[in-house]
Amino acid sequence: MKIVIIGAGHGGLQAAKELSKNGFEVIVYEKNSPQEVSYDWRDDVEPTVFEKLKITLPDNSRKTSRTSFVAPFSETPFYMEKEENANEWSIKRNAFVLLLVKLAQESGAEIEFNTPVQKLIVEDNEVKGVIVNNKKIFANLVIDSSGIDSVFRKEIAKIFNITENIDDNDVFTVYRAFVKTADGEKLPENHKKKVYLKYLGMPGISWCICEPDGLINILIGRVGEMHEREFKNALLKLKKANPVISDEIVMGGKFGRIPVRYPLTKMVGKGYVTVGDAAFMTIPITGSGISNSLRAGQILAEEIIKNNSVSVETLWKYQVKYYEEIGAEHFFVDYMKRTLLTSDNENIKYIFESGIITEDDLCNFSSGKGLKFTPQELMFKLSKCFKKSHFVMSLISALMKGIKAKNLAMKIPEKYDEEKIKLWQTKVERLFS
Ligand SMILES: Cc1cc2nc3c(=O)[nH]c(=O)nc-3n(C[C@H](O)[C@H](O)[C@H](O)COP(=O)(O)OP(=O)(O)OC[C@H]3O[C@@H](n4cnc5c(N)ncnc54)[C@H](O)[C@@H]3O)c2cc1C
């Protein structure tokens, strides 16, 4: 069976490795060169995924340090101390993707760089292959691992009832740069990793992190489009608050886009399946996009291998499993994200400074793990709630709706039945409209 993978994304490469190891003929087309693939900077990844997928990290990977969060308009950061083994891994993005490429090649997959896929071949409402270098390449399955702005998802959206476009509010626009420490400035002892929530009132996060190698890692991010004037002002203020930031860029210095919404309610069609950002599998702040994409690629390969089939029924099993393991939780996280981002800054400041929400809660929430409290913690949080009862009530209401959205997502039809799937899609999507 022949499988074409569009893009050397994490999910696509993981699937490529497993499928080719099990006798499938796999070819990955990547539009960029090996040097240009992914990013030149470091990012954090949730640690357990490497063990689960038996991936040995590249030598230059390292564990991350503690974080201090800064609530909106607050000058007082507060800290997150994590257990040593709970820390994430910081990896060099380009090196990591090239490692996945090597592993896929060693398993027998063919990888063609500098080769953009131009279009899908669609006949009789079924994807039959791709067009590359103006040539038709037929395949039994096309895996779309081409990222958030997949043009292929758009091409087949109508025939497979797949969400075509991503709303502005479902995209996190990010500027990322690693700069040298400014001359004469010392790295602060206690504020090495500062994360600002709703920086300058923008719906999003910004950060200034002093890396162990002496570089300063800066991020300015907001949900929706970031206008030039807004970005310049934020950068200026971030520099003023953190004089260690110089103008000398060593890595990055560019903008990126990250999906911040619940995953696609339909990721599959005849001859076609999506993984990773193309299926909106990311919920930042903490590293989830890379691990979710890797895990999705693994689940997809396992289902295909187990069933020795690429039928739409088999592909649907992949989606169900992804939802059960990871995806359904993101409906809850998405609901809370929407509530927090549209809430008044003073109220947000109170819930963080009073301890109603701690940094650990935030991390668990943003990585899709959900919120779990002991009875004592719950009592403490409730006691702090009285002062802002109106706001807290609206948070509780959002919490309940988030749980409802997650539960509905978990009710994903077990078997591929187009009518049942459409009905379920309409129900879940209505909760977010
Ligand atoms: C600034 C920034 C910071 C981030 N930080 C983190 C973090 O700390 N931790 C984390 O887990 N995630 C982070 N993410 C998210 C993470 O990058 C994504 O979730 C992850 O890369 C998704 O992987 P993917 O498998 O979907 O493929 P992608 O990494 O999106 O790769 C898609 C590939 O497809 C290729 N492609 C596109 N179109 C075509 C075509 N027509 N033909 C051939 N190839 C094509 C692209 O060149 C690319 O190589 C960050 C993202 C950004 C922008």
Task: Quickly describe the structure.
By secondary structure, the protein is an alpha/beta fold. It is 38% helix and 24% strand. The strands form four sheets. The protein has a seven-stranded mixed sheet, with helices on one face. A six-stranded mixed sheet has the order 8-2-1-12-19-18, with helices on both faces.
Structure commentary:
It is a single chain. 38% of the residues lie in helices and 24% in strands. It is α/β, with parallel strands linked by helices and 433 residues long. It has 3 domains: 2-61 and 92-166 and 261-326, FAD/NAD(P)-binding domain; 169-259, 2-Layer Sandwich (D-Amino Acid Oxidase, Chain A, domain 2), CATH 3.30.9.10; 334-408, no CATH class. Strand 9 and strand 10 form a beta hairpin. Helix 8 packs antiparallel against helix 12. The chain binds flavin-adenine dinucleotide (FAD). Residues 6-11, 29-32, 37-38, 43-45, 116-117, 145-147, 174, 176, 256, 258, 276-278, 282, 287-291, 293 line the site of flavin-adenine dinucleotide (FAD).
